[in-house]
Design brief:
about 375 residues; Neuraminidase; 4-stranded antiparallel sheet; 31 strands; about 35% strand; Kelch_1; Gal_Oxidase_central_sf; Kelch-typ_b-propeller
Length: about 375
């Protein structure tokens, strides 16, 4: 990439290019810059900069082919943002759109079947407290946000997944008091209301979720029973499946690597890939470490299979599936290498196609 960054976002555009926005760079600089990746030339180029520097924002493709960015943390006071902006791939320019009613980061943003965007939960402050129960819906036709039904539980760092019937499942996250949640609830875009659903087998935050057929897979994340003690937080390897017909969760195979704050990418209706993340956290007794292998879950066999190493460790990277089925992973933070700080925030990008390592032999970290 043109600039090293982590805590950024990536989105495939209708013209097959990939838009990357924001994140943190060298010297803790919060980026307003955006870049485009061309999968044909395999080259990066700058495009128009966002109106506001931001990290931990959300970014989603609108039905009209433009891209909506909302919330996050800014680059000056490190305060949560309520601003939103829209990128036009035709012009390469950003324009302001309506501001959310609530500033938030570590929230979710989900495209609803009616073409509107649902934003739910998140934090209103930098330091982990003040989880929100508010939810808002963005109308791309008017550029305005309208508040909708409140969550039953204040939560941040949760997941949101569209169910086959168009409703939205949110699961896990952290509560207003910092505790980890096992609860889930479902939003009905017709009524604008939330209904509580089954509890997960494990409380978790900073996990990932994806729909597989009629079910939802949730995997990884982190948990501690004493959230005030940083070194007690442990990444998880457990996975669960949610059945929307019964509202219940069931255990499925554990991942090969514990990981939190990673990407879960849809390879097909039956398979997902877990990419990057942290397997030990800063402040833990073991010291920080990033997950260096990707792995693939197959819902037909209900197994995770490890793939080859990714060259370098990379936590808080961005990743997308390209139109040809390859996975693009870009940026991230390498907190294992014994290198100067300026070399730990990555500008590297890599491509891989699913290639299962049948031997599962250990692969050392990249340079």
């Amino acid at each position: 990439m043109k600039a090293p960054r982590h805590m950024h976002q990536a989105q495939v555009l209708p013209n097959h290019e990939v838009l990357v926005t924001g994140g943190m760079g060298l010297d803790n600089l919060i980026h307003d810059s955006a870049e485009l990746y061309d999968p044909v030339s395999r080259e990066w180029s700058y495009t128009g900069s966002m109106r506001t520097p931001r990290r931990y924002h959300t970014m989603t493709l609108l039905p009209n082919g433009k891209v909506l960015v909302a919330g996050g943390l800014d680059g000056e006071k490190m305060e949560a943002l309520n601003s939103a902006e829209v990128y036009d791939p035709e012009t390469g320019h950003w324009s302001d759109t309506g501001a959310m009613e609530n500033a938030r980061h570590f929230h979710t943003m989900t495209l609803l079947p009616n073409g509107k965007m649902l934003v739910a939960g998140g934090r209103s402050k930098k330091d982990g407290g003040d989880a929100l129960d508010s939810a808002e819906v963005y109308d791309p036709e008017t550029g305005h946000w309208l508040e909708t039904g409140e969550l039953h539980t204040r939560r941040s760092s949760h997941t949101a997944t569209v169910l086959p019937d168009g409703k939205v499942l949110v699961a896990g996250g952290r509560a207003a008091d910092g505790s980890y949640l096992d609860s889930s609830e479902v939003y009905d875009p017709v009524t604008g209301k939330w209904v509580t659903s089954g509890r997960m087998k494990a409380a978790r935050s900073l996990h990932a979720a994806a729909r597989l057929g009629n079910q939802v897979l949730v995997a990884g994340g982190e948990y501690t029973s004493t959230p005030s003690i940083n070194w007690s937080v442990l990444p998880l390897d457990s996975s669960e499946l949610y059945d929307p017909h019964t509202g219940k969760w069931s255990i499925t195979a554990a991942m090969n690597t514990r990981r939190t704050n990673y990407r879960l990418l849809q390879l097909s209706s039956d398979r997902v890939a877990a990419v990057g993340g942290y397997r030990r956290l800063s402040g833990s007794l073991d010291g920080p470490s990033s997950a260096i292998h990707a792995e693939v879950y197959d819902r037909n066999t209900q197994t995770w299979t490890a793939t080859a190493a990714m060259g370098r460790v990379r936590g808080e990277s961005a990743a997308v599936v390209l139109d040809d089925g390859q996975v693009l992973v870009c940026g991230g933070y390498d907190n294992e290498s014994i290198l100067p700080p300026e070399n730990l925030n990555l500008d590297e990008a890599l491509l891989f196609r699913e290639a299962v390592d049948q031997s599962r032999s250990p692969v050392p970290p990249g340079p």
